[in-house]
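Predict the 3D structure for this chain.
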Amino acid sequence: MPRDASKFSGLVLAESMHSSGAAHMFEFTSGYLMSAGHGAVEILTTSPAQFTALNAKRYEKLAIADGQQNEIIAQVAALVRAKSPLTAGAAVRKLVMAGTSMSAGTLVNYLPAHLV
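Done. Predicted structure below.
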């Protein structure tokens, strides 16, 4: 998100993080997203091993079981839309979920269960 919340467009791109830690959608669209005042959020839905390796103490209790991906995505989306600290209290008018590669597979599994 922009540092200045008044420049926030209200649009957030959400993506399920690839197990490699790559943020493909953000990597390909970051120039546009940032210059247009949009926000982006990466959602960890796979093994947290990459994080526990970097900061074992902080993430020692973090665990993601198979089948939790949809619930994780739904909870993060609700948090983002609720004027949370993630958006510095700014209102989100559109939350767009996208994906490539592995994150597209997660999206394909999520959508049928959560279409509104």
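Strands lie at 11-16, 39-43, 94-97.
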